[in-house]
Amino acid sequence: MAPFSLMTSSVSWLAKSFSVFSCTNTLARCTSVLPTAYVNPVKCLTSQASGPPKRPLNGYLRYVLQQQPAMYRRIPEIKTVDIIRKIAQQWRMLSPEQKQPFQEASLRAREQFKVDFQRYQALLTPAQLQQQALEKRQRMAKRKAICKKRELTELGKPKRNRSPFNIYVSEHFQEARGTTTPAKMKSLVEDWRNRLSHQKKVYTQLAEDDKIRYKNEMTSWEDHMMEIGREDLIREQTLSNKKKVSAKTSEVKKETKKAKAKVVKNTTPTVK
């Protein structure tokens, strides 16, 4: 099972967005395994008339959406995050027999989804299929980029160096003119353009210092990545430079070894 924090956040998002979908199927009541107060019909995500079928919920999410209304009625002032946390605790305490109806409903919905999706695909033109494949690749690329960024953050990759303007914005954003972020940014851009060269010089120097900081931290970080076997996270230029240095060092060692062997050979007395 996924970590609790990740599980609750994803469930919260799905629970909030659930109301915007068209719902037709209901989940059978589980009176034999759950108290009556906790049993409510749950509608499942189904296909829209003008779009592709929606992927069905798994057993756990079905249980969450079933328990939410009763939880809201019992504790009207409770927050959604707290509801999800309580329901997740209840789910973990259920026996396999109590979870079975939700999981079986999920399996049935998954089979129906496969049929509906094949029927939907058959109605698409070649151009629509091509567009669909393109959108899928874009979604996968975006998801991969997000995962990689999260991994780099967890591994402690240094933050990139800031430009003079970035430093200026961070120092003057609070007192900038405007009530919204776009308005504040617009005023900061105008102020930056109107500043004289000697007024920008201090930020240019700070940016140079930050650039040195980033370079030193990246060198240490990439050395550490090399030690733990994560060469895939090291920049190509850094790898190329390391290979050049390694090749040069290896060549020097070979030349030194040859020179020593030659010296030993010349100093060895000839046996007559």
From TrEMBL:
Annotated region (Disordered), positions in chain: 241-272
Top-rank lineage group of the source organism: Eukaryota
InterPro entries linked: HMG_box_dom (IPR009071), HMG_box_dom_sf (IPR036910), HMGB (IPR050342)
UniProt-annotated location(s): Mitochondrion matrix, Mitochondrion nucleoid
GO biological process terms, semicolon-separated: regulation of transcription by RNA polymerase II
Quaternary data: Monomer; binds DNA as a monomer. Homodimer. Component of the mitochondrial transcription initiation complex, composed at least of TFB2M, TFAM and POLRMT. In this complex TFAM recruits POLRMT to the promoter whereas TFB2M induces structural changes in POLRMT to enable promoter opening and trapping of the DNA non-template strand. Upon metabolic stress, forms a complex composed of FOXO3, SIRT3, TFAM and POLRMT. Interacts with TFB1M and TFB2M. Interacts with CLPX; this enhances DNA-binding.
Function noted in UniProt: Binds to the mitochondrial light strand promoter and functions in mitochondrial transcription regulation. Component of the mitochondrial transcription initiation complex, composed at least of TFB2M, TFAM and POLRMT that is required for basal transcription of mitochondrial DNA. In this complex, TFAM recruits POLRMT to a specific promoter whereas TFB2M induces structural changes in POLRMT to enable promoter opening and trapping of the DNA non-template strand. Required for accurate and efficient promoter recognition by the mitochondrial RNA polymerase.
UniProt name for this protein: Transcription factor A, mitochondrial
Gene coding for it: tfam
